[in-house]
Amino acid sequence: MGLTRFLLALALFFSFSVDAQQRFITVASTTSTEQSGLFRHLLPVFEQKTGIQVRVVALGTGQALDMGKRGDADVVFVHAKPLEEKFQAEGFGVRRFEVMYNDFVLVGPKSDAAKVGGTRDIVAALQKVRTAAAPFASRGDKSGTHFAELELWKAAGIDIARDRGPWYRDTGSGMGPTLNTASGMNAYALTDRGTWLSFKNRGELVISVEGDQRLFNQYGVMLVNPARHPHVKKDMGQAFVDWVISSEGQKTIAGYKIGGEQLFFPNAGK
Amino acid sequence: MQGFSYSALDGLRLVATLDLRLWEIVGLSLAVSLSAVLAATLLGLPLGAALAVGRFPGRRVAIVALNALMGLPPVVVGLVVYLLLSRAGPLGSLGLLFTPGAMVVAQTLLILPIIAALCRQAVEDAWREYEEQLRSLGVEGLPAALTLVWDIRFSLVTAVLAGLGRACAEVGAVMIVGGNIDGVTRVMTTTIALETSKGDLPLALGLGIVLIAIVLALNAAADMVKEAAQRRVG
Amino acid sequence: MILPLRLDQASFSAGGREIIAALSLEIGAGPNTVILGANGAGKSVLMRLMHGLLEPTAGKVSWHDADRRRSRRQQAMVFQRPVMLRRSARANVLYALQAADVAAGERERRADEALREVGLTQLADRPARVLSGGEQQRLALARAWALHPEVLFLDEPTASLDPSATREIETVIKAFDASGTKIVMATHNLGQARRLGDEVIYLHQGRVLERAPVDQFFSHPASVEAAAFIKGELPWV
């Protein structure tokens, strides 16, 4: 009696872990990409064509690349070009391909204490936020978005590490929670358009600044280097990389819309 | 700002429309947590009982340590299991990371101390009553411990339910070792976390209510089974 | 044969107090041995030293058969309050037989025989814990009977029972005696000692003050303390 139960438990346990039937790859990507809903739209097309299941683990950019370094992913798909190039240079990735770009927008309270509404100049807008010491919610989590935000402060001539005051709030969390905080505090925040379009807890927040070239956010895809990690599924991983930059993949990316608006602009090979 | 009850009703309505995907998530949550409870019970009951009945140097230290481990932060367990199962780690070749199997392992480790420590206390109390008679019959050590565990099984149901509650409620461990992969390792708690971070609070709340209802149902079922069985053996 | 049991200057101390003091004693086969003494005299501790539930803090307790497992198997003990597992009456007897490594088929036979001997056949399938105090004590005796022990220890077996239950228990003890089992019983019930005992060991403050055939002990106690005890007066402890 006791033995039967024990064997049943073992069988149950192993039925979970042995994925012998299913062909799959693991892709490390970012939370903002997943939360935009792109993968739900993009991956079924690839899966149906090749029979390869794509399992996306969504983390911050730093963590996603770290996953690639440890060999826990077959492909990395993130948006932080300098970090990606370093990843490739250090031999963790085979070759970086540009895939698509989306853009960031600055959101802020309708009441617009810093008076940035209506400009297309993100740098000027950030300077106004700093001058007015208006509340600003930053991700502070070493993500691609956080990285982009820091670059923009630098472009505005502001040393944010030194010039920050109580108005600058480091949430240390993902895009969604940061927007939750911004919404709750009526603060400004830099967010990718995709997350913003699906974000439902806006409160009084609206888009304050958009369209500046400097707000464009480039995505890259890389196969994790099988020379470094022999167990990497290099054929299936390469198939995914090839498809994403192929004309079919690129067209599928362009076809993803929220409320009629295109979110991602394919630019592989351009 | 919507009222709490309005959000909750809204949420339940949203939940009702999710059907298939929701039930997949619920099914996986139950499969993972129930497997972990089963494994932790099979390991934890003998461990706790042996600790209760045994006499060896360092026993008090072991008991204190076991009690302390009941408070293991789930996210720490997740991190440790991740490092073990990562390809860069010692058990990477098992390929368990980002599968439900890894989630079961992490949750088992998390709730094992709870079940073992509570069992230890219950068996120790029972040992005081049974010790002389069992030793008179020549039953000592592990056989005595297991006899006690079976005899006080109805009190141990509470320990097992405590473990089940912890497993169903935690998000830190399964998030890290499972990766919250859509359709593969996404469970109720990680979905609630995800929907909250996406700002979809009514949906998150609705899912939360479903989760609590399920745990309540499990506890009610356990209570009924226990009562029926208890009536049969006094 | 595990008898005789020999205690050699055996002492037992706990919590800073010496409960049994350098006691030397030999218990042989044959007469029913009754251990008498006031509360706190050390009867229970002495019983447990003899049965092996306690180790002496000084001195030795040894059976004729040096093999500990064999000597344990030839003894059984019934306590003042019976401890039953949460199972049926029969299952409790079977448990003891299984612990004694009795073969499966033989177990069933012995269990049924033991339950018949104590008159519990009708209640055999009831949960042991719902039986009355007297019935549970009879079940404890059945459990001991099934083991066919050479020595049966009883520590105040009827102290918690009413007179009619007490009579039932004494009947079973007499049956044990008739079947050749050595009886060693601690009691503070003087009437019971007279009814069941052949020899008396009188214990006072951890020491054996007297050992005599039962009639002689009650008619001509050799010590002042024993005389006072028989008269029912509490000795100054």
Write a short abstract of this structure.
The complex is a heterotrimer of chains A (about 270), B (about 230) and C (about 240). Chain B is mainly α and about 230 residues long. Helix content of chain B is about 80%, strand content about 0%.
β-strand number of chain A: 12
CATH architecture of chain B: Orthogonal Bundle
Q: Give the C-alpha Rg of chain A.
A: 21 Å
Please give the largest β-sheet of chain A.
Answer: 10 strands, mixed
Class computed from helices, strands and strand pairing of chain B: mainly alpha
Question: What percent of the residues of chain B sit in helical stretches (DSSP H or I)?
Answer: over 70%
What's the order of the H and E elements of chain A? HEHHEHEHEHEHHEHEHEEHHEEE
Order of helices and strands of chain B: HHHHHHHHH
Oligomer: heterotrimer
Low-confidence stretches of chain A: none
What is the total number of structural domains of chain B?
Answer: 1
CATH class call of the largest domain in chain A: Alpha Beta
- What's the number of structural domains of chain A? 2
- Count of separate DSSP helical elements of chain A: 12
The whole-number mean of residue pLDDT values of chain A reads 88
The CATH superfamily of the largest domain in chain A is identified as Periplasmic binding protein-like II
What best-fitting shape of chain A do the alpha-carbon axes yield?
A: globular
CATH level 1 name of chain B: Mainly Alpha
Low-pLDDT residue spans of chain B:
none
Explained architecture:
The complex is a heterotrimer of chains A (about 270), B (about 230) and C (about 240). Chain A contains twelve helices and twelve strands. Chain A has about 270 residues and is of the alpha/beta class. The longest helix of chain A has 16 residues, at about 1-15. Chain B is mostly helical and about 230 residues long. Chain B is built from nine helices and no strands. Chain C folds into two domains: about 1-75 and about 150-235, Rossmann fold (3-Layer(aba) Sandwich), CATH 3.40.50.300; about 85-150, no CATH class. In chain C, about 40% of the residues lie in helices and about 25% in strands. A six-stranded mixed beta sheet of chain C has the order 5-6-7-3-8-9, sandwiched between helices. A three-stranded antiparallel beta sheet of chain C has the order 2-1-4, with helices on one face. In chain C, a hairpin with a 2-residue loop joins strand 8 (about 200-205) and strand 9 (about 205-215).
